[in-house]
Amino acid sequence: MRLSIFVKTFFLLLFSFHVSSRVIIENATLIDAENPKRINMTLVLQEDEIVYIGKTRLKEVAFQEDDTVIDATGKFIIPGLWDAHVHLTFIPELDYQTAYKLFLKNGITSIRDTGAVIEKLRPAIEFAEDNPLKAPRLFYSGPLIDGMPRVYKGSEPGFPELSVGVSKDTDKNLLVDNLIQEGVSFLKTYEMLTPEDFKELQEIAEQRNLRVTSHIPLSMDLIDAVDAGLDGMQHIRNLELACAEEARDMLTKRKKLLENEDLLPGSSLRSKIHGLQRPKALMNINEQRCDEVIKYLASNNVYQTPTLTINTVGSKRFFANKEWQETYNFLPKEVKTEWLQNSNNLAEQPINESYKNYEKWSFNIVNLFNKHKVKVIAGTDTPIGFLTPGFSLHKELELLVEAGLTPIEAIKAATITPAEFFNLDGKMGSIEVGKRADLLILNNNPSLNIKHTRDIVTVISKGSIYID
User: Are 235 and 356 found together in one domain?
Assistant: First the structure.
């Protein structure tokens, strides 16, 4: 009985101390995508909330003994960043605790896992729940919901088990309800789905108030997918097929290929179709059709996560850069050794012209997205393509700017817009009273040069100063 009372008293005192302690940041310049630049400001953070913003040294801020006070003179504060396309289970040897550390070290305070079998992801989920100050905010879809044969089945090299396959006989209501029970934040649908299964999943998701992001199924026209209620797209995948001069004819041929008379595995069948149709589509883009498709995406509020880092990995070859390879030092030894060896081997190979074409296409499309006010979300596909967790998000921001976004628009893609996807923009994404206390203190102004997002002085996650 005494032990019970002691334990209760201890936790009561601990909780009381935590509630009363605050982080106060003085003399800061605040920069976000929602407000004009604010100079010489004081912020007060309590728990996981910004509770005060005002001019420095105003009397409203009465200092308390246990306050942590940061002098941010000459520094710049932006909201914590998102990487909205990650796969925590893609490389088992790259464990989630290492990934979490690298995200937070780089100021990524929120992540969106876009495909993982729940059983394999569960340790990462439970760790984030039990250790909130050692993990970014975690949003996850659970498995890719694919058709038959599914792509990420786990039986072919390079295609780990990330998915679940459905058919017309699958109880999709039960599937989605089970995922909701597992805490998923959204759904991710995939390329081998039939139009009927895709539309049924969209209807169920809408009934459950879940957003859906997707690789457009190869059996569908993009416009039909949007009309079914699609909320988001990843990698600009299969947009080129919708923009092609012979889009309708190509769709007919894809449907024939999807009959899979050779009984190919899902990964091989998808690769075969992409290999046959993507280069042809990119060489025969109907610009007027493409413009109309992108306007349709904008008018239907379909969020885009272009993942320029993965789209350009074969052409820009970040992995061949010695500075980039230094980020491998933060990885588990086995992963570091493998990545370094494979990076150097691939760097010796000639660059395929198709990689350059896809880079040019990707940059042009992101520029058109921006022109037509399509909502762009920053994500990388880490750890695929030697994209080191955390570091790769800053590379993505640089590529978004290279594609035509301003630095502030790129910051918006990594702060406000991913929060908006989850209807959390009232709680996250900008520096305002009442919003979550995820912040980065930077040495230099990122609105002048997006590379300054790398120059981090302090990371504040969930109202606490992150210590690596």
Answer: yes
Q: Which two tokens stand for residue 181?
A: 């029970």
Strand 22-30, strand 76-79: pairing: parallel
Regarding whether 325 and 178 lie in a shared domain, the answer is yes
Does residue 108 sit in the same domain as residue 157? yes
**Same domain for 466 and 437:** yes
Domain carrying residue 35: 1-78+431-468
Would you list the DSSP string of 197-257?
HHHHHHHHHHHTT--EEEPPPTTS-HHHHHHTT--EEETTTTHHHHHBTTHHHHHHHHHHH
DSSP of 97-120? HHHHHHHHHTTEEEEEE----HHH
**Residues 248-268, mean pLDDT to the nearest whole number:** 96
Asked if 308 and 401 touch (Cβ cutoff 8 Å), the reply is no
C-alpha 49/C-alpha 27 separation (Å) is: 19
**CA 152 – CA 116 distance, rounded (Å):** 10
**Residue 258 structure tokens:** 């999807």
pTM: 0.93
Average pLDDT over residues 443-457: 98
Cβ-Cβ contacts under 8 Å for 241 (sequence gap 6 or more):
216, 222, 247, 250, 251, 254, 277, 278, 281
414 shares a domain with 277: yes
pLDDT attached to residue 59:
64
Domain identity same for 190 and 154: yes
Same domain assignment for residues 282 and 411: yes
Residues 5-34: tens digit of each pLDDT: 333 333 333 333 344 589 999 999 999 999
* Residues 330-348: tens digit of each pLDDT: 999 999 999 999 999 999 9
Same structural domain, 86 and 229: yes
Q: The domain that contains 64 carries what CATH number?
A: 2.30.40.10
- CA 424, 418, 52, 38 dihedral sign is negative
What band does 222 get if pLDDT is binned at 50, 70 and 90? very high
φ, ψ at 252 (rounded to 5°) = -60, -45
What does pLDDT average to over the chain? Answer: 93
Tell me the sheet residues that pair with 240.
none
Q: What is the pLDDT of residue 58?
A: 62
pLDDT by residue (tens digit) across 345-388? 999 999 988 899 999 999 999 999 999 999 999 999 999 999 99
